[in-house]
Design a protein that fits this description.
The chain is an alpha/beta fold. The chain contains 16 helices and 14 strands. It has 3 domains: 308 residues, P-loop containing nucleotide triphosphate hydrolases (Rossmann fold, 3-Layer(aba) Sandwich), CATH 3.40.50; 78 residues, no CATH class; 88 residues.
């Protein structure tokens, strides 16, 4: 079943089996890009195809509210000959920051050093050190799940850089400092909500409700104001789809349709390496059953290597205010198969709101003749809904699954435990060393005391000996004197008698 998107000279269809050749929705502000996006998303959902799309303005949540059959809608429906009934669609609302939608997280490890380096705007040397941190973490079994894990890992390799330099390469403390500062800026942007667990499971995008494909809407009103984070997130999600899905080739229906709104941000703030990676993913993911639509104001926002892969084109009005604009319009016209009924370049500037130049692929994958097309109206309302109405859509299984953040053991805790163990070992070693020194001091004190005791004893003995000798000498002298006096007294006394 093909999708009737509008009417030119003839009804214009979008062949579902050609959706995996990807598409482009472009045009100046207010020319109908959002209407076309909603139209394709609704028709895909009706066919049972899940959809993922970011909402940067807050006007896509209205997919959950049916349209009103006013005169403008009736007039357009009659002109196209459309079998039309207003309808509301089941939507799942996601939000990286977890404010207006289910939290949508990934881990640092799952994002990988390439996307993270682009997110942090690192130079080649700093990116090399980031790769070292990831490699050391892998080799030593330390999962990097959130920002504090990465900070701890960077500090760890910095403190042990002498050990790792010979194996992994030079580790500059200045570069590590620059990465840490970039992480601080990223944290200030709210990235701490994005990195962590439970990590988003890609299978949750592939759900149906009542036979219709679920429309997954990413609340990107704040996220797109942080273009590097928005870019990294969108490329990561598309890469996850590519890694997760098996090869299926061309099918009647794609497994999912993925919209890149504000696509110019992807290339304005992405590195050349990131652009090359995205181009590769876009080229290869078609065989995984994924249809990708880029939505932007100007077609030249999209690099040529990616633009060449977008077979289904919906080009709304362009404005020519400058010579550069006129040149861009001429180049844009060259991307369409000519229709002899009108001049493509001139028509691009004269399209009314709700009109578009449409070139889709036929069954052989060749571009159809470009049609000036009155686009079909969406079945859901054109009017935006308020935040309270959006919040009413959030409660459910997905919110229960992802709302509460989990902080399991990872690099930060492992390194903290390792540091604690090192500190405890150092403290134990210090205590043992202090005890050893104390024992030595005690032994030395005891030795000194023993030597002093012996010295004192010796001195006492000497003193006692000296005293004894003196006493004996004195006694001997006294006794001798007495004897001599007795002898002399006897002699002299005898003479007197």
């Amino acid at each position: 079943m093909d999708i009737l998107v509008g009417k030119g000279e003839n009804p214009v269809y979008l062949k579902t089996e050609m959706l995996n050749r990807h598409g482009l929705i472009a045009g100046a502000t207010g020319t109908g890009k959002t209407t076309t996006l909603k139209l394709i998303a609704e028709d895909a959902s009706d066919l049972g195809i899940p959809v993922f799309l970011p909402d940067v303005k807050g006007d896509l949540f209205s997919l959950s509210v049916p349209n009103e059959m006013n005169d403008n809608v009736k007039d357009r429906v009659n002109k196209i000959g459309l079998d039309y009934s207003p309808a509301a669609y089941d939507i799942e609302v996601w939000d990286v920051f977890g404010d207006l939608g289910h939290p949508m997280r990934t881990t640092i490890s799952e994002m990988g050093p390439l996307l993270l380096a682009n997110l942090l705007d690192l130079n080649e040397v700093q990116e090399g050190i980031l790769n070292i941190a990831f490699k050391v973490a892998d080799d030593e079994g330390m999962p990097i799940l959130d920002l504090k894990d990465l900070r701890a890992m960077l500090n760890y390799i910095s403190e042990n850089r002498k050990e790792y330099t010979s194996t992994y390469g030079n580790i500059s403390t200045a570069s590590i400092g620059a990465i840490q500062r970039a992480l601080l800026l990223l944290e200030n942007d709210g990235a701490e909500y994005f990195f962590g667990e439970p990590a988003f499971e890609i299978d949750d995008l592939f759900r149906q409700e009542g036979g219709k494909g679920l429309i997954n809407i990413l609340n990107a009103k704040i996220l797109h104001q942080k273009p590097r984070l928005y870019t990294a997130f969108m490329v990561w999600l598309l890469s996850e789809l590519y890694e997760h899905l098996p090869e299926v080739g061309d099918q009647e229906y794609p497994k999912i349709i993925f919209f890149f709104d504000e696509a110019h941000l992807l290339f304005q703030y992405g590195s050349k390496l990131l652009t090359d990676k995205l181009a590769q993913v876009i080229r290869l993911i078609r065989s995984k059953g994924v249809s990708v639509f880029f939505v932007t104001q100007r077609p030249d926002d999209i690099p040529d290597e990616i633009l060449a892969q977008l077979g289904n084109k919906f080009q709304h009005a362009l404005r020519a205010f400058t010579p550069k604009d006129r040149k861009m319009i001429k180049e844009t016209a060259q991307n369409f198969r000519d229709n002899p009924s009108f001049d493509t370049a001139e028509t691009l500037t004269n399209l009314q709101s709700g009109e578009a130049l449409v070139s889709t692929l036929d069954a052989d994958g060749l571009p159809n003749i470009t049609e000036k097309t009155l686009m079909a109206p969406p079945k859901s309302t054109f009017d935006a809904i308020d935040d309270d109405s959006v919040r009413a859509l959030i409660p459910g299984a997905m919110d229960k699954k992802y709302r509460k953040m989990i902080d399991r053991e990872s690099a930060f805790e492992i390194l903290e435990e390792k540091l604690t163990k090192i500190q405890e070992e150092a403290e134990a070693k210090a205590l043992a060393e202090e005890k050893r020194k104390e024992d030595i001091r005690r032994d030395q004190d005891e030795s000194r005391a023993e030597r002093q005791k012996r010295r004192n004893k010796s001195e006492l003995e000497k003193a006692m000996g000296k005293m004894a000798n003196q006493t004996i000498y004195s006694m001997s002298r006294t006794l001798g004197n007495r004897i001599m006096r007795g002898i002399l007294g006897g002699i002299f006394g005898g003479k007197k008698r």
